């Protein structure tokens, strides 16, 4: 049985970049619905209900056809949001250590990385996500539609950004680029560094 994780901070902790009301609705209603729908879809499927959610994403091809789309959409929503909440922190942080070396080596500079990542977010048509991927320490940027994610392609994200309208519309309306620019102020680079070290070998 999958459960809705608590936020690692208060609803208003990410102000002024993400407003309290958006965080309440986004976490409690949207993420909560994904968890409920995922559990409902997998009723009686104990082998899948006992899986780690990221392992479930990697093994979607083993889910029975009749429920696979619901599991893909709602399991993706659960995995993506669980990952997203811990990718942010009140007050933000600055990249350092191994991750900034890897970013500079891959993209030329942190600013150039930000520009490419932000452009991928603005350019993602409709709803979706943008990801920083680490494959044995090699970095790349990818974006996915809807609640799809890199785990479905057996790739390992170390940073993810939700660009669905429900993530930003109350504060930024249709100005996705403004939301993305503000989001950089609350990225949890300590967590990104931890993930990078964990998955770089």
Automatic annotation (TrEMBL):
Which keywords, in A-to-Z order, does the entry hold? Metal-binding, Oxidoreductase
Task: Please verify whether the record's keywords include Oxidoreductase.
Answer: yes
Tell me where the transmembrane regions lie.
none
Q: Which GO terms describe its cellular component?
A: cytoplasm
Protein family (similarity comment): Belongs to the iron/manganese superoxide dismutase family.
The function of this protein is: Destroys radicals which are normally produced within the cells and which are toxic to biological systems.
Q: What is this protein called?
A: Superoxide dismutase
The major lineage groups are: Bacteria, Candidatus Gottesmaniibacteriota
């Amino acid at each position: 049985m999958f459960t809705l994780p608590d936020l690692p901070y208060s609803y208003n902790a990410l102000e002024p970049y993400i407003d309290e009301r958006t965080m309440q609705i986004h976490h409690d209603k949207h993420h909560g619905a994904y968890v409920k729908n995922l559990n409902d879809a997998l009723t009686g499927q104990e082998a899948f209900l006992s899986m780690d959610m990221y392992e479930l994403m990697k093994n979607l091809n083993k889910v029975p056809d009749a429920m696979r789309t619901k599991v893909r959409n709602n399991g993706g929503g659960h995995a993506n949001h669980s990952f997203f909440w811990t990718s942010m922190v009140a007050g933000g942080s600055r990249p350092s250590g191994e991750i900034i070396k890897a970013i500079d080596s891959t993209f030329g500079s942190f600013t150039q990385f930000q520009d490419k990542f932000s452009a991928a977010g603005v350019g993602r048509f409709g709803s979706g996500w943008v990801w920083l991927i680490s494959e044995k320490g090699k970095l790349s940027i990818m974006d996915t539609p809807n609640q799809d994610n890199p785990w479905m392609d057996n790739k390992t994200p170390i940073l993810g950004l939700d660009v669905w309208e429900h993530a930003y519309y109350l504060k930024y309306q249709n100005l996705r680029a403004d939301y993305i620019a503000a989001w950089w102020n609350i990225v949890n680079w300590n967590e990104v560094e931890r993930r990078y070290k964990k998955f770089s070998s």
